[in-house]
Amino acid sequence: MAGVCLASAAAREPCRRWGATALGVHRGLCALLARKPERTPRGRPACRQKSSVSFLSRPDLPSLAYKRLKGKSPGIIFIPGYVSNMNGTKALAVEEFCSSLGHAYIRFDYSGVGNSDGNLQECTVGRWRKDVLSIIDDLAVGPQILVGSSLGGWLMFHAAIARPQKVVALIGVATAVDGLVTRFNQLPIEVKKEIEMKGVWNMPSKYSEEVYHIPYSFIKEAEHHCLLHSPIPVNCPIRLLHGMKDDIVPWHTSMQIADRVVSRDVDVILRKDSDHRMKEKADIQLLVCTIDDLIDKLSIVVN
Question: Is 246 a catalytic residue?
Fold first, then answer.
């Protein structure tokens, strides 16, 4: 069965290997969150590997901008949210954490977003799914932990289904499986008809003055990629982090995903005071500790 944990203020404590020497036996995520920080010995400054922007050229598809750190396995790939680029708070924090551990890491921009080629108005969930698979197939080496934020969490499940031999664990942050389709279907009938007539859904952002202009065709295409209507055939370890104050993707969505996925190794971790962005210090700490915990778990399995 899926485990459910309410993350407390203890998540503010740095996890044991971020900026500190990795010592001791793995004690699990709850132990990690409760531990006091270990100080990095003076005179031993952490060495940070820098990543530079590169481009993945693909025949008949837009080139994708990405940044990559080479390092140990399992590698980590960060999959951003809807029209978010690879320079967000969570993506950069995970990069710093992976650099400190010496693990491989990739962050990237979807086609039509950030520095990648392509026209955003022509993008679909299906095309972004292809972007994720291109990153896994053409750039990632060895087993990978996927970290998906919001819509990126939806795409990470599709990637795990398509590449089960390479995707060894999933971490979702405010995972929006079927998210845009669900929100659209909850609109009043007259509003949905108006959007269909105009061909665009003008959806204000709750966190900025920006308005998302979502083509009606995007919503209709996304319906073909919905997962919650049947069992989700993913068997790897899954950790779903969600803020209980998320008013964009309700935390109950993570509970639905945990119920639908066939994997038995599923934890849902809720933060009582976090919103959809989950970008505060304690949220980031929980994220990197969850990555750390899965790296240990996978290392134990391999060894």
Answer: yes
Are the CB atoms for 271 and 244 separated by under 8 Å? Answer: yes
Sheet holding 144-149, edge to edge: 3-7, 266-271, 238-243, 167-173, 144-149, 72-79, 103-108, 61-69, 53-58
pLDDT, tens only, 67-103: 999 999 999 999 999 999 999 999 999 999 999 999 9
Is 150 known to be catalytic?
A: yes
The residue from 109, 131, 246, 292 that is catalytic is: 246
Cα–Cα distance, 87 to 196 (Å, whole number): 33
Name the active-site residue from 150, 178, 225, 292.
150
233: which 2 tokens? 């055939």
Instruction: Indicate the pTM of the whole model.
Output: 0.86
pLDDT in tens, 191-221: 999 999 999 999 887 777 788 899 999 999 9
Helical axes 125-138 vs 151-162, angle rounded to 10°: 60
Contact 33, 295 (CB under 8 A): no
Is 296 a residue of the active site?
no
Report the run of H or E that residue 222 belongs to, with start and end.
Answer: helix 216-222
